[in-house]
Amino acid sequence: MPVFTRLRHQPETADAVTEGTSPEQETAARVTLRSRFAAWRERHPAFVRGAGWTLTALAAVLVFLALVLPNKESALHADRFVRIPVEAILGAAAALTLPRRPRLTVAALSGAALGAMTILNLLDMGFWEYLGRRFNLVLDWELLPDAQSYVKDSMGATVATLATVGAFVLVLLLLTVMALAMVRLSSVLARNKQAATRGTLATAVVWVLCSALGLQIAGSPVAADRAAGAVVSQARLVHTTLRDEAEFQKVAKIDAFGNTPPGQLVPDLRGKDMIFTFIESYGRSAIEDPVEAPGVDATLDARTKALAKAGFHAKSGWLTSATYGGSSWLGHSTTMSGLWIDNQQRYRTLMASDHMSLTEAFKKSGAWDTVGIMPGVQKSWPESKFYGLDSYRNAFQMGYKGPKFSWSTMPDQYALQQFQNLEHGKKRTKPLMSLVILTSSHQPWAPIPKMVPWNKLGNGTIFNAVHAAGNKPSDIIASSPKSQAEYGKSVQYSVTALTEWLERYGTKDTVLVFLGDHQPIPRVSGNHASRDVPVSIVAKDPKVLDRISAWNWTDGLRPAHNAPVWKMSAFRDKFLTAYGSTKHPKKS
């Protein structure tokens, strides 16, 4: 048993408060420390006053910024910070009327709440930048690990780790510092009650007058209630999200083709090798934006001519995607289900339902083998059941030994060649229906693969030199002009790889349907871009395109500006109907 000896002498220093001292000695040490600190303050009054005013001013600035901070980066203008927040007036009134203990408690809690609101504003900024929408407090937490994975794939593990640690530190600092700032401001107001009361009343009068007169600076009202409005808006979003979850469960159980007999599903495509392909971030901006369009349009026109020379013809139109900037799986599931899947809860509900996807219709018919080519999938993928796939190939099942191109695990050309080698080129007793997801046009669009001779693809190591010569993500990701230029090149690459594959391996019975999943991020497409994506159907058999003549789509791979625009959720039913499927509704 250890022996503890009592200190015989307790020095009057900070080191005196140590393990093993008696309560009396600890109390004496604390008194001594307070006395020394008080003496130091008396010897340096100017410094103490200056430091106090500096801390108070800093606290006031932090609280003010938190109260008026917008939730969009595009709204970060000087006029947004020349405002009078009503929440500050109400907070000052509370600090002047509450007793000390409740005042400090309210100040600390409201400060932490301001810190939390600031965190949500920052999350909103990120989501507006990359997904074209605000952060959903109920659904979007599970997307944060995906964001970390994206940073890791694009910028490296070190940057991802530093960003993660930095985010946690920032959250703790905001919660703590904002709470301390509010406590300090409330204490200053309480110590100067008379002057603070006059100032609060005067500010309240000015706020009321500015509000009544509708005074604005550069379009922003001087009398602001940004923080209160943000709380109300978040509450409404939470309520809407929870209500939508219950309503969508009922919607997902209703299916116009849910009870259609197998023999009445897509009878006009029997014997055709069907390929449904999504091209990552292939949006309307690629075809119509002044920066990206010249190169992409030239590629689409050249590939239309090359396909025609090989006997293939195409018709193209527009679909309005359910997502924007990312969350590609929402676009995939919306197209294939015929339901509007614009959030994670709807996606989860759909995947757990027996609602029939367009690709599953081919499986249910019994007339096709079904397969998925998923180079972006790097873990188990239970969604394959919803899509009606007999099997699928993920990123680790295609023999690729070359370099990753940022987030994209392999170049589209390689994935398509392996699709041919492993699935499409095999002899079968049935035609094949394939779902192919191409990833080379995924942000940050650096480095971008280049086309190589098809017969030299091998195991993909030929792309080592291409990767080494390409741009670094850090050189592209922060620049809008560079991102736009490289985005356009990536779309040109993906379209070229897909159509060259069709030229090389397509037959008279091949039917290719390809489309984008969503528009690229606002840094590339702009803050006011549409949600439209191009969609094309390509075939040799003229009867296939004759079936959709009533759609009034544009001939070729490039849809006209005034070509029909449908919601993405309309495509499944229109496609099934055009190719002879008979409706037999299933209702809840």
TrEMBL record:
The chain crosses the membrane at residues 46-69, 81-99, 106-128, 159-183, 195-215. It comes from Streptomyces gilvifuscus. This is CDP-alcohol phosphatidyltransferase. SUPFAM superfamilies: Alkaline phosphatase-like. It comes from the Bacteria. Residues 1-25 are annotated as: Disordered. Keywords: Membrane, Transmembrane, Transmembrane helix. The lineage of its organism: Bacteria, Bacillati, Actinomycetota, Actinomycetes, Kitasatosporales. Coiled coil: none annotated.
